[in-house]
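User: Um, what's this?
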Amino acid sequence: MPTLKYLPQYPPALVLQAQTLFDSGELGPLLRDKYPDRHDVQTDKALYQFVSELKQRYLKHAPLPAKVLYDNQQHPLKGTLGTNTAISRVQGGRLKSKNEIRIASLFRELPLPFLQMIAVHELVRTSNLICGEMCKLTKMDTISLLQ
């Protein structure tokens, strides 16, 4: 029986509720009914603008990533929804670093709240904020995706 490996840090009651819905085959239809529409963020350029707007609205002092793009190599079934990398390069006598956010291409097809969730998660990792501050800054409650 597959488990919901992205939810172990959530309250046990919520994990049990999601696992029960998943086991009975009701989770997919429930989420499709709650979030019927796809979003318009389909290109890498639109994704970069979307992430920069989130950053400007909620994380004003966080650095803006140099690159934000959808990545076909990210595989949700193997455990990767998004990555955040710092790439260092030598320029002259200095060391320059750039941050990149790569989000699994799966999020092109999913509703906007799911894209927001992963984008905020990766932005927070970029800015080195603790997870508790993420919910406070964004006013997004990822638990509401299942409720």
Remarks:
- The chain has five helices and three strands.
- Helices lie at 12-24, 27-34, 44-58, 112-127, 131-138.
